[in-house]
Amino acid sequence: MRPLSLACRWRPSCCSYLTLPIILFLILMKMMYFKLPIIKIKVWIFFLLFCNRNEDLKQMLESNKDSAKLDAMKRIVGMIAKGKNASELFPAVVKNVASKNIEIKKLVYVYLVRYAEEQQDLALLSISTFQRALKDPNQLIRASALRVLSSIRVPIIVPIMMLAIKEASADLSPYVRKNAAHAIQKLYSLDPEQKEMLIEVIEKLLKDKSTLVAGSVVMAFEEVCPDRIDLIHKNYRKLCNLLVDVEEWGQVVIIHMLTRYARTQFVSPWKEGDELEDNEKNFYESDDDQKEKTDKRKKPYTMDPDHRLLIRNTKPLLQSRNAAVVMAVAQLYWHISPKSEAGIISKSLVRLLRSNREVQYIVLQNIATMSIQRKGMFEPYLKSFYVRSTDPTMIKTLKLEILTNLANEANISTLLREFQTYVKSQDKQFAAATIQTIGRCATNIVEVTDTCLNGLVCLLSNRDEIVVAESVVVIKKLLQMQPVQHGEIIKHMAKLLDSITVPVARASILWLIGENCERVPKIAPDVLRKMAKSFTSEDDLVKLQILNLGAKLYLTNSKQTKLLTQYILNLGKYDQNYDIRDRTRFIRQLIVPNEKSGALSKYAKKIFLAQKPAPLLESPFKDRDHFQLGTLSHTLNIKATGYLELSNWPEVAPDPSVRNVEVIELAKEWTPAGKAKQENSAKKFYSESEEEEDSSDSSSDSESESGSESGEEGDSNEDSSEDSSSEQDSESGRESGLENKRTAKRNSKAKGKSGSEDEEKENEKSKTSDSSNAESSSIEDSSSDSESESESESESESRKVTQEKEKKTKQGRTPLTKDVSLLDLDDFNPVSTPVALPIPALSPSLMADLEGLNLSTSSSVISVSTPVFVPTKTHVLLHRMSGKGLAAHYFFPRQPCIFGDKMVSIQITLNNTTDQKIENIHIGEKKLPIGLKMHVFNPIDSLEPEGSITVSMGIDFCDSTQTASFQLCTKDDCFSVNIQPPVGELLLPVAMSEKDFKKEQGMLTGMNETSAVIIAAPQNFTPSVIFQKVVNIANVGAVPSGQDNIHRCEELNFEAL
């Protein structure tokens, strides 16, 4: 009894957490001394710990000192952060909600937000305090009070919450307005009948210009009224422009909402190729008739400026540090951008594969879905999907799936070597998945079917039973496609029945033997005999296949197997599994004729030995494309609660004027006097009437948007900033700096067009540029082509105007050039022929900014010289063994390509090594990466035996070493070949003086400098040897040097032409 009296005398309020363990230890020792049961000891310890663990915190909260209360609240919030339960302290904490100390009040509200929903009755007692706190001078207190109020899930306070949300939505602090948007969702889940009033608050908050509010109010919009697209119309452009500055999770919500919005308001950009039409007119038609006909036809696709605004403003977010933001932008580009522009997301998605395994899993799932439809997007990053030994199984399986989707004739040999390593993995599940992958590659690529099949047969001798079993299953599927040719493999697999124990593999072998029992008449009866011995000990799946095998042999070879089949049917008749008993009765009535047999017994052979269709090995991600990428529904492959489906593109775009925002001009915008004079002089010279200038002024923004519709991905930052500023300018119309930019933009456009041209010519230009953009496979190429066309046209027009108006050109007009800005240095293209470049006319402000920066070429004349050295080394394009007697070699002659300035000239030598004529040699299907172009040689009618012929072709490698894959075809066969250029063959030699070279060298930035150390023998350090080595590997020109130890070479890449 003495331990009890000790426990009663001990007052826990007199001790702290430091002395409690010591007292517990003393009590435990005394109990053990008196030999009390262990159960009682545990009960006493639990009682002491549970009943007195928070007594000191309660006393500190009831203290008169703010320091003690603050210390207690810090410890309580720390407990919550660690996941410990502090709900029993609610009465003591809620008393301090009216504390005058700001720090204590903040922590009390943090606690109440966490436990207000659990302790609703106690929280209701302090509701008047929360209402007073809504008008506190401190914005954090106001926001916290609203959060606590919205966390009390009691229907009786709904009117109070509604009033608080309305007041908070008009608060001066954006943080309070943000919490008002959060409270909208809580109130809607508590009382959905308040929807109409909440929509009014959402409509008000959508007009908020603060980036802090934007993400929260869009989230409230998605929860309460996602179908009210009309609320977004007026705020669409504002949301697009604010997107970059919104917090990361707000960016995710806004991007997903704008994706759904774009699918309802814009026409599909994926019909560019289909809607482009033939503009050729009939010979006898007049221009007027042709014009009427063209008007009646459907106009070519032109992207809506607002559609382009969304795509352009989300592009910088691909570099976000947040994986969710990058994934959101990727799904937006996938669902609403032109297919030619969606390729830019691949690099950003591959970058996310360096994140943790959870992020990798989601990203790889989305890439697996994308790679089924558009393989070319991820082919350049094939090695990024190679499996690492440290990857978990789920990541390995997804990478295998992607590699299978990306497999083609060009890379299948590399992938098969990679798969050979994976099969040896210690992860058996991964090894089995690899074997399935090999089977899919064999079905998708006919050229490697036999190779894969032979490799799988070799795996049948593997020591690992799982590998052997999976190989059997895959071989069974492959043999269904061409069973006649592989009788030996079936015999080999029949011998494995004695060693394989996996039920699925045994059942697959039995099915194969049964299907091909007529091709292996000697082996099949013996297999049935062995299976009859072990029938009772087999798995149910194997028993069903034994019954099927017996039925098929009974129908085809009844002399040898009649008694054996009846024995097996008798065993199945009394089996424990009812499925096997049913199958036995069914087969007996079908194949063994008797009086009770129906009409079906006549067709038993057709039923059992009917031709089965070959299995279709498809990707498990094939049916996921109807879900929006990056969503939970896509990950689970099932429609999740709250999932909003993407609508189909409208046939006709809704009225775009609903997104126009009315701007009330309070006062005329101020413009600098010098600039106004310059604009007036431009008007006098370039425009024939003021009406024309007004129309161009009003349509400048739309023209800039549609002009960027050609999809030039290489746009500089200044272009994007000007476009976004023009959008903001159309909304507010109050910032003079933006007006200055827009005025400069109009002046630059006025310089690019002749004043005497009418609108029809401009429309024709836009049509030709659009068609050229749609035809090109690369965005950058298309943009550069359209720019060069517009430049050549504008130059010819400027010559005409110059001849007609010489007096006006003497007053200050300069020759027509491209617009030059601070960030547009990449757009400057040196010419390929000796041309004296004119000096661009710049405004005084730009001249001051560009002082010391020379944008023109360093020399007045740049010319491409002849190659210094032409290597005779040839590369094998097609070996005579692979080409069935047709051999092909290629080399780079280092001569200008006659098919295009940007193309590399390639000469191909074709040899016929057979004793028969090879007919119709031509280039077949081309599988080029995005941006690459190829000009093929004309088809060769015939090539005589032992004959040889050399042809020329040109390839635009887009200044990269990407592989150009295509098919070299004859009359009977097609062979997959590829050409990958060395870096040195992508250059052109340029002739210039040493002075000009140094000037050009001084203009290079650090990113264009490369240094390396080469170790060579002393005899190889002579100038002639070094020069010979350099020109052997690179097509460069020599520059005269005044120093013996310095050698200079000059080149020009094809993209600069």
Task: Summarize the helices and strands and which ones pair or pack.
Elements: H1 2-9, H2 20-33, H3 38-52, H4 55-61, H5 66-81, H6 90-94, H7 102-115, H8 120-125, H9 127-133, H10 139-151, H11 158-169, H12 174-190, H13 195-206, H14 211-224, H15 230-233, H16 236-242, H17 248-265, H18 272-275, H19 287-296, H20 305-314, H21 323-336, H22 345-351, H23 357-373, H24 393-406, H25 412-423, H26 428-444, H27 449-459, H28 465-479, H29 487-495, H30 503-515, H31 523-533, H32 540-556, H33 558-573, H34 578-591, H35 604-608, H36 632-636, H37 673-686, H38 690-698, H39 700-707, H40 717-731, H41 736-751, H42 759-775, H43 779-804, H44 806-810, H45 844-849, E1 863-864, E2 875-878, E3 886-891, E4 904-912, E5 918-927, E6 933-935, E7 940-943, E8 948-956, E9 964-969, E10 974-979, E11 987-991, H46 994-1002, H47 1023-1033, E12 1037-1039, E13 1048-1053
Antiparallel strand pairs: 1-11, 2-3, 3-4, 4-8, 5-7, 5-9, 6-8, 9-10, 11-13, 12-13
Protein name: AP-3 complex subunit beta
Subcellular location: Cytoplasmic vesicle, Clathrin-coated vesicle membrane; Golgi apparatus
Family: Belongs to the adaptor complexes large subunit family.
